[in-house]
Amino acid sequence: MLNENEVIENLKLSFPDYIGDDAAVIPQQGEMNYVISKDVLTEDIHFRPSYVDPASLAQKALHVNLSDIAAMGAKPQFVLLGISIPNLHEKYASDFLSHFSKACLDASVVLIGGDTTKSPDKFFMSVTAIGTVKKKYIKYRSTAKPGDLICTIGNLGDAHLGLLAFEKSLSNFEKYKNSYLRPSAKINEGQWLGEQSAITSMMDISDGLYIDLKRLCLASTVQSNIVLENLTPTEEFKAACGSIGVDFREVMLTGGEDYGLLFTVKPESYAMLADKFNQKFGYEIRQVGKLLNGTGISFTEKGNEINLKLKAFSHFGEL
Amino acid sequence: MLNENEVIENLKLSFPDYIGDDAAVIPQQGEMNYVISKDVLTEDIHFRPSYVDPASLAQKALHVNLSDIAAMGAKPQFVLLGISIPNLHEKYASDFLSHFSKACLDASVVLIGGDTTKSPDKFFMSVTAIGTVKKKYIKYRSTAKPGDLICTIGNLGDAHLGLLAFEKSLSNFEKYKNSYLRPSAKINEGQWLGEQSAITSMMDISDGLYIDLKRLCLASTVQSNIVLENLTPTEEFKAACGSIGVDFREVMLTGGEDYGLLFTVKPESYAMLADKFNQKFGYEIRQVGKLLNGTGISFTEKGNEINLKLKAFSHFGEL
Question: How many distinct structural domains can be found in chain B?
Fold first, then answer.
């Protein structure tokens, strides 16, 4: 089966310098650069109109992309929208377009263009987002070093729990369903983290911590050690996982679509950074482990190595 | 039914300054600007894998966008590709990706990113293209003036004739099928025309001269008079239309997907411009009419007004 990583590796053979981060950097004169990202959302792969209302889909389509821009330390500025609309969903699509405009205004980004076409049956859309960032503040995923601490912001697993609740037609779980339906990109946090010299690498968490951290390790040629007891869920999250019958750690490690940020920090700067972040944004950075020399991801619990088999999230493996 | 023009008009209410040309202008310091375009190509709407080989689809997906960049007078520089791939078409998609890389290299544009996902059944793709142009050379569709001459370059109707030949399973017509399958954006011509101060407006011809000229008239608040005897087909084209049973003028006026350029020229500069163009590119500019005060499109033949009813090409009306 065609695998997204293989696709990217193949494309890299022709274009070695440009592909690999959440957004691509467009060179520009002066101290600022543009960064640009592009995502695709396809009906029945990324969303189902039956349980995603048009307003939520608009928010998600936009913020998935803004998250990529934020992950580079950049400020989102412009957006283009391409959509392919099936006849069956015209009212849905019309509402989606209104809400997409509103979501752009809410996020202070300007919709500058796009393309609207018919689709034979499924709803398809692609958003392109453009942001600006001072060259010296751009963050990449390839620049982490052994010894750096692995940190995340945002909830881990909430969106996946929401998706499971939808798939199993469970009532309640509104908080998690909302996390799945209406992710909110860490735009201000991304810009602030970009400005911190203690941050050695950054990317967003779109496909789950486990697979995204693997990508960071691959790009930076480092190994990740995740300290399992640092994955501290709320009692509510733990109970929700229990009632659905899933392992809370597995959901936190592999659940996709939370759109938090994953970044690495110089260990000597961590305490001060975490403190400043908390003061500024009113919530905690989560330190989940440490980078080592090597490759891949290892897990420890109370100092003991744990052999954890995880199934990575992949669009190509879905459905 | 949701109509593309209505969609754009609605979006303009929220974002009045930015939507309407083939590509959007991204502000930048200095003498250069970036322009950016985004198109969507959907299986069974824009192409059918049964008669479009992966190499041709790659060429088309790329050049449809490069044409938008050329229409602004800009030089294409970067491309992003988003694709949604159904399981059935994996070999096709893999070949498509290789050819898309090659087409980018051939057109001297750099593939800088994108997104690859699964699709439930149909093949979708969206290309974003970015070009650079000196600010003073950017061409818009809203700046034409009454009295200007309406000109085109590129063939009119060839691609549509090719599509008809495919739809009717006709053998021969290879030249027209090739025009449909493998359009080639007028990249060098667009840049050169952008530099000419005699050119008062420009856009590409993607949906057919009739509908695209209507858009130019609307944007510039002018009327177009098309002189029908200036639509001089080759004998071969006329014969091909005859054998398929379609009116050659109608095909030339409404056939989409040729990706030539439509532009308007100050009348006093036309002769010299046409001469310089011919010397540089080795083929003729076609002067098809003149702009007047008013709105809409009128037709004359040997000085007499002709009432021509044309069905405009629309993605939403297709199939």
Answer: 2
Element (H, E) at B177: helix B174-181
Does the pLDDT of residue A318 top 50, yes or no?
Answer: no
Domain that holds residue B59: 4-136
Task: Write the residue in A98, A102, A113 that is nearest to B36 by C-beta.
Answer: A113
User: Which residue has tokens 């200007």?
Assistant: B148
The burial class, CB within 10 Å (0-12 / 13-18 / 19+), for B246 is middle
Mind telling me how many Å the CA of B307 is from chain A's nearest CA? 30
Which ipTM value was assigned to this complex? 0.89
- Say yes or no: B162 and B96 in one domain: no
Helix (H, G, I), strand (E, B) or coil at A92: helix
Joined together, the tokens standing for residue A224 give 């990740």
In angstroms, the separation between the Cα of residue A117 and the nearest Cα of chain B is: 6
Tell me if the pTM is above 0.95. no
Question: Residue B5: which residues within 8 A CB-CB, separation 6 or more?
Answer: none
For an interface test with B, give the residue of A21, A34, A84 to mutate (most B CBs within 10 A): A84
Residues B289 and B144 reside in one and the same domain: yes
CATH code of the domain containing B56: 3.30.1330.10
Same domain, A132 and A145: no
